Amino acid sequence: MGELAIGFGLLSDATRVGILKALASGPKNVAALCKAVGARRPTISHHVGLLKLGGLVRSTHKGRSVMYTADKARIGALAAVLARMTTRK
Hints:
Elements: H1 2-10, H2 14-23, H3 30-37, H4 41-53, E1 57-62, E2 65-70, H5 72-86
Antiparallel strand pairs: 1-2
């Protein structure tokens, strides 16, 4: 349950949710995330770092750039927990 709590905690911030929304359409670097979310580089870097620690975002190096992708399996696991919690019996 600890991992779930961490995952849900990460979703409690509008900037982090914005980053995940932006990454839903495909990999992006920090500059593209800044533009998509409307935040400055230090803010995006901080929140991407937290999302990486929580396992919701992965990074890969492409030349000198770092590309970020959403870990859709982990995000899907959080969504599945919510779905089970809201299913009526």
